[in-house]
Structure formats: structure tokens, C-alpha cells
Write a structure and sequence with these properties.
Blueprint lengths: L17 H4 L24 E4 L4 E3 L8 E7 L4 H5 L1 H11 L4 E7 L6 H10 L6 E3 L4 H6 L3 E2 L1 E5 L5 E5 L5 E2 L2 E2 L7 H10 L14 E2 L14 H12 L17 H6 L1 H9 L23 H12 L27 E4 L4 E3 L11 E6 L6 E9 L6 E9 L14 E5 L6 E2 L4 E5 L4 E8 L6 E3 L2 E6 L6 E9 L12 E8 L4 E9 L4 E9 L5 E7 L16 E3 L4 E8 L27 E9 L4
Parallel strand pairs: 3-4, 4-5, 19-23
Antiparallel strand pairs: 1-2, 1-5, 3-7, 6-11, 7-8, 9-10, 12-22, 13-21, 14-20, 15-18, 15-19, 15-22, 16-17, 16-20, 23-30, 24-29, 25-28, 25-30, 26-27, 26-29
Helix pairs in contact: 7-10, 9-10
Length: 591
């Protein structure tokens, strides 16, 4: 099942990755006004920077104000904000404002902090706060959390940088630049209008002293739960922002694990359990959730290493296994540093195959060359003599990738066809992130050993013609597909943009019976899941597959770029789409 014809999305090195990763963040709270948070004077402190030199707060005595920002190396929200912090430094530094970053995560080594500062080109000192002394001094809880100190070193503002990123949402631009506004007010010797704001980010990992004994231990219990439910994503090089391969990893992220498991934000799975069963169900079983919470409550004991299971063995590069063939874009593409005003148009790259006969693909995986700026890839098959029309259902879809999507893997006896002499068309959607990069993406294919019994096609069930009124918080759209011959459904992937609210697939059979096949009551643009039925779902000839979606174009939707604008179909995120992708298997040779 392919990803989506989707659009603007901020990407970091996780690939999307924010995408999979923002579910680790705290819920929003109400803004607190000035009267709710009296100023506190911060005493001097000194910490070592990435060059091992001691930097003190007193060394900024000539500054009119100082920004102290608490950071981490693995928090995706923190990393997405680094370009914005550099902009603020460039704007306010010449006005007499000093900037300091403080890393208080006990698991972040001096080398990791230095490497992170270099990678993100942080233009001001980054200090290591061993033992969380300075974090405790400020009362900092998350990354990135900002504090503005005035000339007397009193805290005048505490909270977020702005409101651009949050739990399950992201905006093309901020609607309130809280840190910048506070700095302007302090420099103008005015009262800060909003002195405290909620921080959406990762919990600062303070040093934990685990207990020695417990009824639930890491070695005997928790290691197995993390292997089964978490490590596919939470390991180096994957979409998860932090690794969970070892006891030390789990100990460091214990508070975060407790938060996301309690809130049922991790693992990410959005299907309503009342409808259908899915082979790739990532939801956390109740017994595993209870064990994780009990382990944290008991002080996260390690247990005896002899009880540890063997470590999992993961594919080194390709999740589908070693490909029979790898097809790359013909050349590198230069992705600009900045996002153009009207977005980056989709790019299409054509690659001629040299297959001497029809090939049948049972596994396919798309891999971006520059994950930080590739939002999605869709690989189309263009048979000889055919004209490529982007978005046309007549153009066969091979595979793709988007935030949260998995590789395309079919059961034995099923495959997709690449006719002899075809071209592969890479549809690329790039999302500049402030740093120019080069991309040369690729797809890996594994062929069936013999012609399959069933041919799989990917069908977009969409509605192109709509106008979502401004302010409408529950706008309904429908689309449908009629089966002209017997088939079976082997995969779903609902797709909308930032105003997407919920999505439902239902079948109306020839005997008038109606059945809900998949319900996604809370659509998440940042994690566009594929849903693979545990068993093929028969679709007799004449069955109508209906897709029903709702959209929230009101100010209540934190994702909404502009609740005052009417919205129509379009490629860019501030526009909308309504596509019920579905993978259908048909018996070959039968009409």
C-alpha cells in the first residue's frame, strides 16, 4: 500500500520521522498569565561546554537579557526547533541578548552533546548539566524549554519557543512567537504579557537510581516487551527518536515510557478495535501495558542478566530482506534550504527498467536518500506506450513511503506486475528544513519465484470535488468503488491532510448487507498507518466499497493552517485530500 499524495510536513532525521516521534510529547495546558508566576532570581552557576571550557551565568553580566534553553540530543521537537533558535540568536544577539543551551539528560554523553551541537550548527554555547543541578535550579521539565532572564537575572518568561509543534500536530508557521515576544517586552522594559506557556517536548531524563528487586524486572519481563513492541522503531537509524535496546536506554526514558503508555500514545495504532482484525496491529496488549507500569512503579529493577532473552537480529539495510534488484533515481536532486512560499511542487523522475520479461513483485520498499527532507515517495509503473498522468488511477502504483508507513509485503501467491519494458516513475515530495541537501532515493524489489495466483492492484478511492467551508468542524466527504468482478481486500491506507479528522471504510454487499471494515476515529497526519487485514476480505462482484471521512476546518483544530479559508483538493498541506487507498487481490485469468 502506498503512502499518500501528501504535502507539507516538517521532517527531521527521523524521516519523517516527527512524525513517528511526536507522540512522545506532553499534552497542552492553558496559558498562565503574569500574575500566576512571580519572578524568581537565578543565582550564578557554571558548567562545561562542548570544548570542556567552564561557562558561567556571570559571564553574561553585560547582557540586557539571557535566554537559557534546555535541550536534548534525541528529542525530535527539540531538534526541529534548532533552526528557529539560530534565527532568534541572529535577531536578538545584536540587541544585547545572550543565549545558553543546557543539556540535563543524564544519558547524553559529552561526545553526544558535542556531536549534536555540531550537526545542528548551534551558534551559542551548549553546556552539560551533570546531576541535573541547573535543571533543578530553574525547575525545567522538558526539552526544549526556554527561560528569559532580565538584567537582574530574574526569570521573566518560562515555556515554549512558539506554538508551531505540539502533540499530534504541526503548523507551517507559528501563530504566536512566545519567546520572541517575551524578549521584545523585556528589552523594552515592559511587563511580559504571558510569562508562562506549556512546553511540548520530551521529559528531561534525570538520573534514576533503580531498585535492586521487584516482582517485575527488566531482564525477565520488560526486555521482552520492548523487543516485541518497541524496537522495530526505537533503535539506531529508525524512525523512533530514541533507542530502547538496552536496560540503560529503558532506565533513561522511564518517565517518558510511563507517560506515553498511560496515555496510550505508544505504540501508534489508530484502528477502532471493534471493527476488523489486522496482521500488523501495533497496539500494546493490556498485560504488557500493566507490566511496564508496574516495573516503573517498582523502581525499574534490572534483575538478573541470565534472564535476558537473546538480542533481536534486525535487517541491516532493507526491512524486506536483500532485494533482487535496486532501482535508484537517475541522479541526485538538489533540495533547497528554504521552503518556497507556495510549497515545493512534486518532482517526477523516470527510470527505464531492463527487464527482459514481465516481473512479479511480492515485496517492495522505498528508501529516501535524504530522509530529513523527503516527505513521501510513490513509485509508479509506466508500461510501454502509456502516458504518465500523476494521480490517475490508471497508472499502476508499485510502492511508496510516508510517515508511519511500512514496506509492501504480500503473502505467497500474490504479487504486483511490472510489464516488460516499463519505466519506474519516482514521485518525490520534498520538504526543505533550513539546510540544503542532496537526495537520490531508491526502491528495492523482491520478485516472486513463479507467476502468482493473484494479482494485487492499489486503487485510490477518492473525492476530488469538494469545498470545505471555513470554520466547519465536522465536514463530511464520501467516495466509493464498485467491484466489477470478485476480489479480496488485503490492505487499507486512509489519507487526508491537516484538517483530517476520521476515516471509515464500509462495504455494501449485493445482498444489501453493510459491514464496517475499518474505522480510524482519530486520523493522525504525522503517522499514516497501513492496515493489513489478518485474513483476506472477500468482495463479491457488485460490492460497493464506501469511504466516509470528516474534516475539522475550525479554530479548534490545532493543525489547521487557516480556519478562515475555504479548502479544496490540492497537493500542498494547507489544501486537502480525501483518498481511501485500498490494495485489492484478483484471481489471474478470471473476469
Amino acid at each position: 500500500m502506498i503512502g499518500a499524495l501528501c504535502v507539507w510536513s516538517v521532517r527531521s532525521e527521523m524521516k519523517s520521522i516527527l512524525l513517528a516521534a511526536v507522540v512522545f510529547f506532553s499534552p497542552l495546558l492553558l496559558l498562565l498569565r503574569a500574575k500566576d508566576s512571580p519572578a524568581k532570581t537565578v543565582p550564578d552557576f557554571a558548567l562545561k561546554d562542548t570544548q570542556d571550557d567552564a561557562i558561567s551565568l556571570a559571564s553574561f553580566k553585560d547582557k540586557k537579557a539571557v535566554v537559557v534553553i534546555f535541550v536534548g540530543t534525541q528529542c525530535p521537537i527539540n531538534n526541529l526547533y534548532q533552526p528557529r533558535l539560530a534565527e532568534l540568536y541572529k535577531e536578538f544577539g545584536p540587541q544585547g541578548v545572550g543565549f545558553l543551551a543546557v543539556n540535563s539528560n543524564w544519558q547524553d554523553s559529552a561526545k553526544a552533546i558535542a556531536d549534536h551541537a555540531k550537526k545542528y550548527e548551534i551558534p551559542f554555547p551548549v553546556l552539560r548539566d551533570e546531576g541535573n543541578r541547573v535543571a533543578d535550579l530553574f525547575g525545567a521539565g522538558r526539552t526544549p524549554e526556554a527561560f528569559v532572564l532580565d538584567g537582574k537575572r530574574s526569570i521573566r518568561y518560562q515555556g515554549r519557543i512558539d506554538d508551531r509543534f505540539g502533540l499530534d500536530y504541526q503548523k507551517p508557521k507559528a501563530t504566536r512567537n512566545d519567546l520572541a515576544e517575551a524578549l521584545k517586552e523585556v528589552l523594552a522594559d515592559k511587563n511580559v504579557a504571558v510569562v508562562k506557556t506549556p512546553v511540548t517536548g520530551c521529559i528531561i531524563a534525570r538520573k534514576a537510581i533503580p531498585k535492586k528487586e521487584g516482582t517485575v524486572t527488566y531482564a525477565k519481563d520488560i526486555s521482552r516487551i520492548l523487543q516485541k513492541n518497541c524496537q522495530d522503531c526505537h533503535r539506531p537509524g529508525q524512525i523512533g527518536p530514541m533507542s530502547l535496546l538496552t536496560y540503560r536506554d529503558a532506565l533513561a526514558w522511564g518517565d517518558t515510557i510511563k507517560e506515553v503508555v498511560t496515555d496510550r500514545r505508544m505504540p501508534p495504532w489508530y484502528a477502532d478495535p471493534r471493527y476488523g482484525h489486522f496482521s500488523n496491529d501495533r497496539s500494546l496488549p493490556a498485560r504488557d501495558r500493566e507490566a511496564l507500569l508496574a516495573w516503573i512503579e517498582q523502581g525499574m529493577p534490572q534483575g538478573d542478566d541470565k534472564d535476558l532473552p537473546p538480542p533481536r537480529v534486525f535487517p541491516k539495510v532493507w526491512k524486506i530482506g536483500e532485494p533482487d534488484v535496486i532501482i535508484r533515481m537517475p541522479a541526485e536532486f538538489d533540495v533547497p534550504a528554504e521552503m518556497p512560499k507556495f510549497g515545493v511542487p512534486y518532482k517526477h523522475f523516470f527510470v527505464q527498467t531492463d527487464f527482459e520479461e514481465d516481473r512479479w513483485v511480492e515485496r517492495a520498499e522505498a528508501r529516501p536518500g535524504a530522509p530529513a527532507v523527503v516527505h513521501h515517495i510513490i513509485a509508479f509503473v509506466l508500461p510501454p506506450g502509456e502516458r504518465f498522468i500523476p494521480g490517475s488511477p490508471r497508472t499502476p502504483t508499485l510502492c511508496g513511503t510516508a510517515p508511519g508507513e511500512m514496506p509492501f509485503i504480500l503473502p505467497p501467491g500474490m504479487a504486483k506486475k511490472i510489464p516488460k519494458g516499463s519505466k519506474i516513475v519516482f514521485q518525490m515530495h520534498y520538504t526543505p528544513n533550513g539546510k540544503a541537501q542532496k537526495d537520490r532515493s531508491e526502491i528495492g524489489l523482491i520478485f516472486a519465484k513463479k507467476p502468482p495466483q493473484k494479482e494485487v492492484v492499489t486503487v485510490p478511492v477518492y473525492n476530488l470535488f469538494f469545498r470545505i467551508p471555513p470554520g466547519d468542524d465536522n465536514y463530511k466527504l464520501e467516495s466509493s468503488y464498485t467491484f466489477r468482478k470478485d476480489g479480496t481486500i488485503v490492505g487499507f491506507m486512509p489519507h487526508m491532510h491537516l484538517r483530517g479528522k476520521d476515516f471509515l471504510y464500509q462495504a455494501k454487499y449485493p445482498d444489501k448487507k453493510t459491514e464496517i471494515l475499518l474505522s480510524v476515529p482519530r486520523f493522525n497526519f504525522n503517522w499514516q498507518s497501513v492496515y493489513r487485514p489478518a485474513k483476506e476480505i472477500p468482495m463479491p462482484k457488485g460490492t460497493v466499497l464506501e469511504c466516509i471521512a470528516h474534516f475539522d476546518n475550525s479554530a479548534k483544530n490545532p493543525n489547521n493552517p487557516d480556519p478562515t479559508a475555504a479548502v479544496r483538493w490540492g497537493d500542498q498541506t494547507w489544501e486537502e485530500m480525501m483518498v481511501g487507498w485500498v490494495d485489492i487481490a484478483y484471481e489471474r485469468g478470471k473476469e
